[in-house]
Structure formats: C-alpha cells, structure tokens
Amino acid sequence: MEIFHIWDLDRVNIRLDYNFLKKVNILLIKKFKFKREAWKLIFPCGDIPFGSFKNSLKESSYKKFFFPLDVWLRIIDFLKIPRDEFEKSITSYKTAGGVNYIESPILPIVINPIFHMIFAHNIGDGTVINPKKGRLPYFGYRQFDEFYRLAYVKKLEYIFGKIKYQKEYFIKSTRPYCPAMISSLFFKYYKFSIEDFLSDRARITGPLLNSDKDSLLAVLIAFIIDEGYIDSTQISICLKNKLLINDLKQICDKLNYESKITEPISEISKHYARLHILRRGMKKLFEDYIHLNERYPIINLGKKGKKIEDSFKIYNRKIIKKKGNQDNILSILIEEQLSVNQIAERIGMTRQGVRFHIHNLIKQNKIELIDKNKLNWEYKAC
C-alpha cells in the first residue's frame, strides 16, 4: 500500500490540536525556559521573525490562522517528536495563500483505486489552471451533470478529508476545483507536467497500466462517465487522443473485456479514434463494476450504469422485433432529426434494429441522411 504524508505536499499551512500545541509549549519551556532562546537555536539563521515563531505557539492564534508546515517540521524535529504523532495532531490544512481548506484530514494519504480514478477524471474532463504570481497550478473538473459533478468532490473527500469550500459554488457551477496542494500530489505521483494533462497528449502512465485490477477498472469507469456513450450492444469512448485510446484498449485487454478500436472516416471525425467495449466485454465489465461498487460505493456509474442495465434488458427481451416500429421511427423523424443511437434510446430498440428500419425507410425515399460529415449521423423525414 502506497502512502503520502502531509510533508509530501507542497506549500501547506496547518492548524494543530490544542493538546499537541500545549505539549510542545511545555517541552520548549522545560528545555529552554524562554521561547526566544528556543527560537535562536531552532532558527539560527533567522528564517522567521521571533514574533511569527511566538504566534505559531499560541493557542488563540489557531482560531483564526493557519501556520506554515515547514516551520512546524523544524520545531518537532528539533524536539525529537515523532512525525507520525505530529501528523495525527493536524486538525486541518490548506494551500498557503489559499482559501479552501481540508478539515479532519485523512492522513497519511493512501493511494487506492479512488485516487487513480480522480487522476482519470482530471484527464477526461479536467483542465489545469495555472495562475500567475508563482502560485501552484490546480485542477478544474468540467461536468454538466450534477450527480457526477458532486461525485467528483466526494471522491476528493474520500481520499483527503472534508473540503471546506468558501461556498459550495459547484452545486450550480459546472466546474468544481481541486485545491492546489492536493493537485500538486497528482503531478508528483504520476510525474506529470501541466502539459501532460492536455487532452491531446495525456496518457495512462506505465506504472498505472501495471497496477491492480480494481485501479484499472476505476480508471476505465472514469472515462466511461466522462467520455462514454452506451447503447444496446456496446460502450463507446471517442477521443481525439489516439494514443490514450490505445492505453484504454490495453486496460480492456488486461481485464479481459472484449473490445476493438475504430477510426471514423468522415471529414469531421477523421482525427478521432473510438474504443468499443463490445457486448460480452460490457457484460463482464458491469459484473466487475458491481463487485467494485460493493467495496467502494463511491465508485458509481450513475445514469450510465442504468443505461447499461437497460441495454441488457432490451437485448435479452423475448420479442426483439415488433410490428409498427418502422412507422414509429418515421413519425419521430417527421418531428425532429435524430441519430440511430438517439432513436434506439427513444423507442427501446437495439441499435441494429433501428438501423435495419432506417435502411428500409431510405430505400422507400421516406427519410434522408442529413450530413455524413457529422460525428453522429442524423436523419430526417423527406
């Protein structure tokens, strides 16, 4: 099990438990009698002013302020207080200069499938905000669906602890942000630069490709949530980044999910590649997902999981063909233009069944294809 400690994060300010703070004050007075003498020995180069050192030891200060982690590491190391004891005494922490903070933190930080899933979300629908004035870069996760948006925040809290945002703006905003000192850990762990998270060049790194089954599945589920489309026969993930599609195909191969890659030939989509997790692969994936969800309930496919379940019901129903579907399709296309996938979802048919009727309606000159250059072909009544 891989872990990271609070001192592995960048530019952290902390608050401490009062009992621990009291213990440190007692040790300092016992050893030095005067705090100024302690300051001279712990910070011989005057790294911080004496006033700042004295304030960092006041219990009253912690009701209003956070104090630099590196200052406290110098103090506890000098006093030979074990770092794990110190870490347990941290009641909250935040990025130096930041507003949002983590309360009742989970320390040390454990690298598990949820951590890897957050990484995948940051690639799939994430952006890196790189502020000026020497501040740390951080992630923003663009997600229009409220369930998935809030689930992203819950995953962050599952790994790091309760995030106290200045206000819960992300309930209505489409982009929750990952605090900078947390974001820095993802850069550090995966050895990624800001550019490595760009959508056209991001990759699933080698060590992660060789990780455990649960982590691989969590990464794949993140991409299904962010970039996946489900119909009655398969899950499709379409990306402009063809190398990343190959990485996801490797994950499918490692997990024994039957899949294939295709490259669309229309003008608008020729730069994309599409991973298809075929029906048998989709069935095994969903079975594995159910077991993973039992161990980690926070990994939830939401409405896309419901679509997968419904697709099995449609495909396995006793009567797949029924009279009147062709007329239903025509009546729908008289009102609006739709793709095969949209029609299949609307009337509860398989994609292949809809395509069969579409071909017949075209032959009868009752409907027509609107534009072959669109990523998803749409049809309308003549």
Task: Report on the architecture of this protein.
- The chain has 382 residues and is α+β, with helices and mostly antiparallel strands.
- It has 4 domains: 71 residues; 89 residues, Roll (Endonuclease I-creI); 110 residues, Endonuclease I-creI; 57 residues, Arc Repressor Mutant, subunit A (Orthogonal Bundle), CATH 1.10.10.10.
- The strands form 5 sheets. It has a 5-stranded antiparallel sheet.
- A hairpin with an 8-residue loop joins strand 7 and strand 8.
- The longest helix has 17 residues.
- The model has no long low-confidence stretch (mean pLDDT 88).
Task: Supply database-style keywords.
15% strand; 4 domains; five-stranded antiparallel β-sheet; Endonuclease I-creI; alpha+beta; single chain; four-stranded antiparallel β-sheet; 16 helices
Q: What is the compact description of this entry?
A:
This protein is an alpha+beta fold and 382 residues long.
Q: How many separate structural domains? A: 4
- Measured as a percent range, the helix fraction is 40-55%
Structural class: alpha+beta
Principal-axis shape equals elongated
**How many beta-strand runs?**
17
CATH class of the largest domain: Alpha Beta
Oligomer: single chain
Tally of individual helices:
16
Given as residue ranges, the uncertain stretches (5+ residues, pLDDT < 50) are none
Under CATH, the topology of the largest domain can be stated as Endonuclease I-creI
Mean pLDDT over all positions: 88
Task: Round the Cα radius of gyration to an integer and report it.
Answer: 27 Å
Strand content: 15-25%
Largest sheet: 5 strands, antiparallel
